[in-house]
Amino acid sequence: MMLTTRHGLACLAFLVPAGSLFGFAVIMARKIVKRGPKDYRRAELTDDGRRVRIDLDDYTKAHGDFAVFDPAAERFTRVGEVTLIDEDQKFVERRIHATGSGPVTLGPVVDWTPDVFFEPSAVAGRFEEVHIPTAYGAAPAWLFEGRNADTWVIHIHGSWTDRSIMFRDVHAFSALGFTSLVPSFRSDLEVSPPQAESSHLGQTEWRDVESAVAYAVAHGAQRIILSGWSMGGTIALLTAERSAYRDRIAGIVLVGPVTSWRKTIRAGAESAGVPAVGAGLVMSLLQAPPFAKMLGLEEAINFDALEWVDIPNRVSIPTLVLHSSADQEVPWKISAAFQRANPDTVTLIPLPEAHHTQEWNVSPHTFTNELTSWINKTILTEG
After folding, report:
1. CA-based nearest residue to 224, from 198, 253, 203
2. Does the bond joining 193 to the residue before it have cis omega, within 30 degrees of 0?
């Protein structure tokens, strides 16, 4: 989740009448830039280990392929179709995916995840772990060699996830034969020594993606596609504007992207029943250097720099946006406004109903077809 846990801001909204609006704004600001705890669900095996029974909520009953991670066994299990929903006892049962052997035990709690590949070897046979030089040292990345060594895709994950969440994106691009690079950046837990304590909403993380672009160019990339999901969309847009290799960046692909942090924060506050002034106060705090420093930010957030909706024609590179109209974290209407602000460069394609950045999970065939069709028509027309 990008901004909240499953219970989210809706729970925090009840604090507003009891305390000050300022106190609420501080809590909300922390939730935006700080990593939250895992949101575990209760789970167990049923039907002789062929199904998983898990707490019922909007995510666990969603159509598509997902997975659960058992922290006790340190094991992922891929799950597919819903076979039973019990509204009275608040659980859902899903069939364990046919690929691979199922777990012997499961639970009592699991983490629900849209990552269904778990390991790079499950996405493609040929890959290697590489280390990208950055300002703070070497950042780990996965390199998937494609038939086409001239065109590289840089896959950029969002806040408080990790690079493995982009395996779905690598899978979607695989039919095109491009080389894929999946970098980590400064707020990731795997970066050693630890760097950023807080997410900078893409404002500083883009520099690490620029390092990944430089690595790609140094290893033969003639043409680069930036593919960013959620906050990764913010990072992709910043990189395309500021990169020393702008002439190599041929296109941008965005999935459920944050193209306006102001509007995304306001939407989150509105859905939680928080007055608009509360969202404004949150942003004022994040823009204030003393408060930003208190939250562990290296620099205050510049919301003007993270705004592509209210600035017409800011995007100069062909850009595809894949987004579900049911996204509750980054509302569809923000992407629609983003496209209207950049009508000559941005193509917006609605995908079947899905939660935030789970468009691939709900319909991988549709996702991949729309992606590859746009790439063929827009990026490869000179090929």
Report:
1. 253
2. yes
CA angle 127, 320, 312 (to 5 degrees): 135
Three-state secondary structure readout of 65-122: CEEEEECCCCEEEEEEEEEEEECCCCEEEEEECCCCCCCCCCCCEEEEECCCCCCHHH
Q: For the chain, what's the residue count?
A: 383
Contact 152, 159 (CB under 8 A): no
- Pair 321, 346: CB distance under 8 Å: yes
d(CA 244, CA 107): 48
Per-residue model confidence as pLDDT tens digits over 62-88 = 999 999 999 999 999 999 999 999 999
What Å distances lie between residue 270 and 9, 61, 231, 232, 263, CA to CA?
Answer: 10, 25, 20, 23, 10
- Contact present, 28 and 9 (Cβ < 8 Å): yes
pLDDT beneath 70, residues of the chain: 1-20, 99-101, 382-383
Q: How far from each other are the two terminal CA atoms of the chain, in whole angstroms?
A: 38
- Residues 164 and 300: their CA atoms lie apart, in Å, by 29
pLDDT the model gives residue 99: 67
